[in-house]
Amino acid sequence: MKKHILLLVLTVLAVSAFARSEGQGVFSFLDLTYNARASALGGTSIAIRDQDISLATTNPSLLNPTMKNQLALSIVDYFAGITYGQMVYGGKMGKSAAWSAGINYVNYGRFDETTAAGDFTGAQFHASDYAMHIAFAKPLNTLSGLGLPVRFDSLFHVGVKSTFIYSQLADYTASGLALDAAITYYNSKAQRTVTLLARNAGLQLKAYTPGVHEALPFKVQLGYAQKLKKAPLRILATWQHVEHFKLLTDSISTGVIGTAADQVSGPSMFDQALAHVAIGTEILISKNFNIRFGYNLQRRKELGVDTRMSITGLSFGLGFRVSKFQFSYGRAAYHLAGPSNTFSVSMNLQELMHRK
Fold first, then answer.
1. By CB neighbour count within 10 A (0-12 exposed, 13-18 middle, 19+ buried), where does 160 fall?
2. For residue 224, pLDDT beyond 90
3. Mean model confidence pLDDT for the chain
4. What is the count of structural domains for the chain?
5. Which of 24, 25, 56, 145 gets the highest tally of CB atoms within 10 A of its CB?
6. Which domain holds residue 18?
């Protein structure tokens, strides 16, 4: 089993390195941030290994047996009346393996149907997206199955996640399959975690328009987390889109079309490198309460207004425990138009049922 999982992870990571990364592709909702903790930490958090099952929905190799019987729910107040959320449940297999199953959804609301000239037809239509997933993870104790007598003492963990995607936009529907695979190095003594994650490697099974298939929003991420020994802090950094360097456009328009001034020099190599980085920190005030801050440089560079950058790209939140429930809140500034708010709650169902 360990051999098959490792080979699958390595295959996905290798093959995905050659995947096309131009444009957003289809099913871009897969890249939304679905839990409050990650939202507060810059929009992504793939290298925190603890008992938070909501983080494992993004990185399956974070799954572990402590998440058995955990149920996590999240809801996001997004823009233009859009809401989306997530539900996930975890379980245990044997002594060291773990699994999870869940669903993500996006509700775009109802829209008035109009003609090409803009006249209201009297009808309305609905738009929504769904992603149903199941994941599995296991520590990698040895490579003896591959003929390599190297023992890692459970420092490495591998995980895979399979997702079925369904989308409905008025009378148009589409579906697809995606596979995530990850390898995580976790040193409990040093409180250090490093993760390599490949997301959304897959294909569109049914296109909105017959014969017009699009690529999924594939990406490779590299994450790092370190708990400081002499301070109640955890620092995090994520390098996004390892497979594709140029995230920012090569040129920007000055608004004078057809003139030499229309196109100016694009982002520097330094700016392109910074656009990959999302950083965050957790202030661990106590076991039951912490404060979180994050900064997403790509979000700031792409969505910020030069004359009034404000706090675009910044995010913050907190987490606290009340009785058997763990609550989290995250607020992320995307643009001057306003922030998004994410609320999450998790609980252990077995503890609730045995509560006196």
1. buried
2. yes
3. 85
4. 1
5. 56
6. 2-110+122-241+276-353
